[in-house]
């Protein structure tokens, strides 16, 4: 039989794809069970690389949206952030994935800055629920999401519920992070609003 040439991959991102082309794993060589296992592993590796690349791109899109929002270009920012969030949900799948939760917070802030408080509230509630489940109620990211939700509720005139969330963020921040931590101080400021 002819000697198979080794597969050479110039792009390291396509290396997972190249595994399926290695000699000895080609179904034509009588190694179907082994071939299937190797090809499945290659596909999983390839998908992980693509997902990480897509997630990185979506984080960059999120950063652009955040920048636009901070410049007062809220309508354009909303479109960009919505696209980033929808894409991240598709890539990461899990509502509780840190990448999804981060983008939810940014999107909620953008909506709230436009006075779209009811829509922002839905996003913030999802973020709070997801963060509590993913990292716990005392994590700084969770506490900021709780504080943001409280502020959003206050802007809608839901003062009792707003106060409860803001107090939870302040008390959690003091207990977990200390009185002078930036998250605690931001929550205290939000409680005062």
UniProtKB/TrEMBL annotation:
Gene3D superfamilies: Tetratricopeptide repeat domain. Pfam families: TPR_12. It comes from the Eukaryota. Coiled coil: none annotated. Signal peptide: none annotated. This is Kinesin light chain.
């Amino acid at each position: 039989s002819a000697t198979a040439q080794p597969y050479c991959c110039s792009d390291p991102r396509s290396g997972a794809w190249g595994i399926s082309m290695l000699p000895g794993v080609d179904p034509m060589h009588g190694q179907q069970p082994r071939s299937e296992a190797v090809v499945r592993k290659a596909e999983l590796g390839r998908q992980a690389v693509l997902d990480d690349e897509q997630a990185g791109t979506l984080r960059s899109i999120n950063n652009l949206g955040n920048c636009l929002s901070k410049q007062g270009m809220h309508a354009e920012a909303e479109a960009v952030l919505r696209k980033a969030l929808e894409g991240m949900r598709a890539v990461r799948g899990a509502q509780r994935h840190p990448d999804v939760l981060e983008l939810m917070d940014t999107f909620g802030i953008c909506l709230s800055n436009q006075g779209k408080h009811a829509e922002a509230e839905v996003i913030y509630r999802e973020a709070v629920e997801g963060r509590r489940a993913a990292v716990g109620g005392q994590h700084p990211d969770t506490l900021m999401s709780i504080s943001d939700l409280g502020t959003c509720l206050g802007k809608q005139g839901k003062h009792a519920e707003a106060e409860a969330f803001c107090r939870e963020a302040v008390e959690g921040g003091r207990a977990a992070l200390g009185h002078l931590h930036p998250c605690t101080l931001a929550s205290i400021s939000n409680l005062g609003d």
